[in-house]
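Quick review question:
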């Protein structure tokens, strides 16, 4: 499988990036405008529903005004309470007076506000005038006997309403809405008994009102009574959705006087003064019709944008890859030249490529210089090896000289000088030969004893070494000259600076698991904080031997190893040397 070219890779990368940005932008625009249209439609529908609510409540108020006008109506009471004579003409006059008064008191006031109004008055059986209407039937006549009302469904609820207006609808007449009220006296100097039942009939459109709009034209309105009976104001197209909605949100305070979404419908719920619910249902298909228009605009825009993305991506990819391809040709050309000389036919097209080309030229020049330096270094190494072979005799000459001094001193009967010279010879041989190898703790102790012999001789002091270390710990390995700098530091600061001629340096050991800790204690008092800070100082150690010991231990055994100084309860100084034993030696 061949690798894609730089031009193709950049082209694909830029195209995908632009396409993702384009798709994201168009999606955000579509969702934003869709949500904006839905929110505006919700607000507009809620406003229309509020207009309907005000219209219904105003209609109820008009009806209440008429009912209140007939309450305690003495003239109506006098007309229905007049004795009935035997004269047929008197009967006609009485009926005419009652009908005229009802037209003037009921029909005329309501007709000012409603396009269609029908009324019926059912006279209570206790009044003599009730007999005048015994032969009339409903709904041909406007005045009837109470016996006619008792046979109708509204009689019981009207009686239980106790003088309040009772509103109802009938399934066989979905375009009509009815109001009934029991007319009775409430406050009068002369008691007025119940007069009868007033029945009013209106067109639903007159009660609810109309609001024509592009969105509202697809809305369906419903009146729902306190028993959750559903009556369509302008049809029953969404009756199933309404029943499901009522089962979920029936009389819930969460949806009252607001618009909610459910089952791809918008439900606007408002309460009426009668306790009824006014419900408006609008399908989302009508609300999102403007969104479809937006998509019709976006599809050509997407197609044009995709073409633009391809063209722009190719231009960008070519502008980026062309200088790099040119530089690649230059480097391939120089690869086949043995002297690393790169020829250039034209100047780089961009500043960045020019900088890369200059860096490449400097890199080639540096390689040539390094090759020359390596050649010279090889010659120098050979010469150094020859000088090292010649200098190998020098340590042997030094050891032989020290041995000669020792034998001469013994011939003259001096025992101290041979002992010190022997100790010095041991230290020199120990430090020079194989300085990088690990030694045992026992070997370090031997060198420390030689060192103390020399110090005791030079400074005329008597410092003893007490080693309290078990046999299992005497063979642990550590770097060469680990103990000597610590002992030297103890002699200098623990004895010489304190003007103390005699004393003992104690060395103890304890082990927990793989961690071995050697404690070197001297009686002197030192600045513990300064020494510990010196061990962890980032500056080069210069002449601080204990700092070198600490760093070598950490490099060899890890960060858990190293050196730390503490002070005992009686003021002595203890150097704690910690190392990690390999797992195969535990």
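Suggested answer, residue by residue:
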């Amino acid at each position: 499988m061949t690798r894609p070219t730089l031009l193709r890779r950049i082209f694909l990368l830029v195209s995908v990036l632009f396409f993702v940005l384009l798709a994201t932008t168009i999606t955000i625009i579509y969702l934003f405008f869709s949500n904006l249209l839905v929110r505006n439609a919700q607000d507009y529908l809620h406003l229309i529903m509020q207009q309907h609510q005000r219209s219904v409540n105003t209609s109820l108020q008009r009806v209440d005004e008429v009912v209140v006008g007939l309450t305690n109506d003495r003239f109506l009471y006098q007309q229905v309470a007049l004795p009935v004579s035997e004269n047929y003409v008197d009967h006609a006059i009485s009926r005419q007076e009652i009908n005229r008064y009802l037209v003037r008191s009921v029909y005329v006031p309501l007709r000012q506000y409603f396009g269609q109004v029908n009324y019926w008055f059912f006279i209570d059986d206790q009044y003599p005038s009730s007999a005048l209407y015994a032969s009339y039937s409903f709904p041909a006549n406007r005045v009837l006997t109470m016996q006619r009302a008792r046979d109708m469904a509204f009689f019981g609820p009207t009686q239980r309403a106790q003088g309040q207006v009772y509103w109802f609808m009938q399934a066989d007449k979905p375009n009509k809405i009815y109001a009934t009220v029991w007319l009775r006296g409430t406050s009068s100097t002369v008691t007025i008994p119940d007069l009868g039942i007033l029945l009013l009939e209106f067109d639903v459109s007159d009660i609810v009102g109309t609001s024509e709009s592009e969105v509202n034209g697809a809305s369906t309105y419903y009146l729902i009574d306190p028993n959750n009976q559903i009556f369509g104001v302008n049809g029953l197209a969404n009756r199933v959705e309404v029943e499901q909605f009522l089962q979920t949100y029936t009389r819930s305070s969460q949806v009252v006087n607001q618009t909610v979404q459910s089952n791809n419908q918008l439900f606007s719920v408002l309460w009426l003064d009668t306790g009824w619910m006014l419900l408006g249902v609008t399908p989302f298909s009508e609300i999102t019709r403007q969104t479809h228009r937006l998509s019709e605009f976006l599809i050509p825009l997407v197609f044009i944008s995709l073409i633009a993305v391809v063209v722009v991506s190719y231009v960008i990819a070519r502008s980026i890859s062309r200088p790099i391809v040119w530089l690649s040709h230059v480097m391939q050309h120089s690869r086949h030249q043995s002297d690393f000389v790169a020829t250039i036919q034209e100047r780089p097209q961009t500043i960045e490529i020019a900088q890369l080309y200059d860096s490449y030229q400097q890199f080639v020049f540096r390689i040539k210089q390094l090759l020359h330096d390596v050649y010279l270094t090889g010659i120098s190494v050979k010469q150094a090896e020859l000088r090292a072979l010649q200098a190998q005799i020098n340590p042997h000459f030094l050891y032989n000289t020290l041995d000669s001094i020792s034998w001469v001193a013994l011939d003259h009967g001096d025992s101290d000088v041979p002992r010190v010279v022997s100790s010095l010879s041991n230290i020199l041989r120990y430090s020079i030969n194989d300085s990088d190898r690990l030694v045992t703790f026992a070997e370090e102790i031997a060198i420390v004893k030689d060192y103390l012999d020399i110090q005791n001789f030079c400074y005329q002091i008597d410092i003893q070494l007490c080693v309290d270390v078990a046999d299992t710990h005497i063979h642990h390995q550590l770097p060469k000259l680990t103990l000597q700098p610590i002992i030297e530091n103890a002699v200098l600061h623990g004895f010489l600076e304190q003007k103390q001629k005699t004393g003992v340096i104690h060395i103890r050991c304890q082990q927990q698991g793989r961690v071995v800790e050697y404690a070197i204690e001297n009686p002197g008092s030192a600045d513990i904080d300064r020494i510990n800070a010196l061990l962890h100082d980032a500056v080069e150690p210069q002449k601080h031997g204990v700092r070198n010991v600490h760093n070598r231990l950490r490099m060899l055994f890890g960060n858990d190893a190293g050196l730390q100084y503490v002070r005992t309860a009686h003021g002595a100084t203890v150097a704690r040397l910690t190392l990690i034993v390999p797992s195969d030696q535990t």
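Why it works: Residues 29 and 298 are 10 Å apart (CA to CA). Residues 25-68+212-297 form a domain with the Beta-Lactamase fold (CATH 3.30.450).
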